[in-house]
Amino acid sequence: YLPYAHPTGIVARADSVLVSDWYSQGLYEHNIKTFGIRRVTSLPDLTPVAMAASADSLWLAGTDGVIERRLLDARYTRAARTKAIRPAPDGACFDGLYFWTAHTASGAIVKRMPGDALEEMRTFKYPGRRLGALTCDKRFLWAADPGLKALVKLSLDDPERILSSTPVEQYASRTLKITAMSAADGRIWFAGEDGDRALAFYKNEPK
Known about the structure:
207 residues; mainly beta; 4-stranded antiparallel β-sheet
């Protein structure tokens, strides 16, 4: 369990896991093995509702629909901002070539150009039961589906096609709400709320 209660984004790196929290408006860097907190960065002018990363940048989506690109320096310095996107995305990821956003309430998954403006290319409809959170890697899109209580694998070429569905045991808790995901090094990371507590966990990527 996490020492804050409202995670909205998670990014796994070689030796650390970065989690954003909307209530405290903070970025929490954890040791990947012990999950002890290494560093906390305050975001006083942003309420983060989604987070994505590339090799050299961090993207943070705010409640106003604006997505900011941040540098991976000590202060996560702002480098660029998009115009407000409607409806405001609450999921985001970068597949190495294209940027993706999700609006979980409507099930919309949007493919975008990777530039600072993140221009929309095409919108897809999530094909599962209910979209809870979204992430991607260079091969697939991954979704947490509370309706199926599963990790759903989607095609990058056709996100309206389900490739596989794998049960997520943590959904046995009826109060669990997975709010963020990240894919890295053969693991799928999840962050979410369970009652008045927050948690993070990972599953090995389904074969």
